[in-house]
Predict the 3D structure of the following.
Amino acid sequence: MSNHEGSHHHFILPVKTGTFIWITLMVLTVITVWIAQFNFGALNFAIAMLVATIKASLVAMFFMGLKYDKLENRVIFIASLIFFAIFMVLTFSDLAFRGAFRVQQPFFAESGSQPKFANPWKVTPELLAHGKAVFETNCVTCHGAQGKGDGPAGSAFNPRPRNFTEEPGWKNGRKPTQIFATLKNGLGSMPSFASLPLDDRWGVVHYVASLGPNTTVVTDADLKSVGVDPSGAVSAAAKTLPIDFAIERMATGN
Amino acid sequence: MAHPTTEHHYAHHFESAEHEFESCKQGMWLFLMQEVLFFSALFVAYAVFRMFFPEAYHQAHHALDWRMGGLNTLILICSSFTMALAVNAAQRGLRERTVWQLAFTLILATGFLVVKYFEYSHKFHVGILPAKYFHVAELIGPGKEFTDPNVPIFFSLYFTLTGLHGLHVLIGMGVIFWILLRAARGEFSPGYYTPVEMVGLYWHFVDLVWIYLFPLLYLIS
């Protein structure tokens, strides 16, 4: 509590200092725009943020008078920035260790789109070609263009992504239904792709199965085990909307 | 510091006018702390989605005119300066100058919103709307199509960030007008100018947020 009864000794920002700060801020704005014309790669963002932070510091220190303010007020404001930094750093350190976090589906896509292939657990040449296309959009970053587990992002993982061209070592097995289970549930560093449309997932399953040396036989019981009614009805649980997909992926890290 | 010309009658639960002023100021800083945290959630969302969809951000920012954003940055900086001059004048008991500087600040704030209005109405016209209302068929010129399906995410953030900032500008204009009237009535003196300084702090904070919004939204390379 203040004991300075009635005595005001607040700092008054001199007009001269204020004018100098104003001109500096205007010049820095021009510099921000000017420097954005050049391409320094990732450095552009760093420079823009650095200049913005210099500007913000000038505003806070002089126009808002924090430089001359009481320690408590400075602590309050700087604490808010520290909490902001914690927020940012923890969010990004979390995201960085989630493995694949890329969301391929548009957030605001029309939901409830009709499946393009009926009974997609039965392989057809068209479905296989479709599966290859889905594979090339969603899987090659880790599993590689030939499915050899040598995609550019795959090197970040231990164990390495599955090599689909080899027989041994498949943790969930190589039956199409078992591959489907892996796609649905994820496995280790591999995220779940449960909300890709059902026919897309089966297309990928058939394509992945076709990369290996032997084709395996699937029974109705196998299909039932992954929630597919062989008579043709799609179980409600398997139908998920893209927006749920994105939110679920972000919320659970799968 | 000049001595108060008129004695300010501080509220009974304060020891002195000084005590009242310091308490008020600390409350203002706590409010601004809350404002930082309020905006920080949006900035983190911006950063996360930028990491997810760099290409969408790049395509989307072509729809923003950096000249408009740059002009608004300059306008807000000028308004921050006139606000600082208004506080300076109020502290020194220069009533007429306080009123004029507050009026300049109001005019500049209006200019900011006018520029924003032209930006928004152009976007609405071509179908750039938030979230599911986004519907752009073809747009803004060769080589500037939105092929990335996640472009609407950028605009949802754009409208949320600039919209909330614009709301802060509007509220700021309201409180500036309020202290302008009070200053014109001669309610402030070197002994009492608390509202002017508090509104000043708020207004500078609004400028501070925009200083970051401008490069983050308009200048994506």
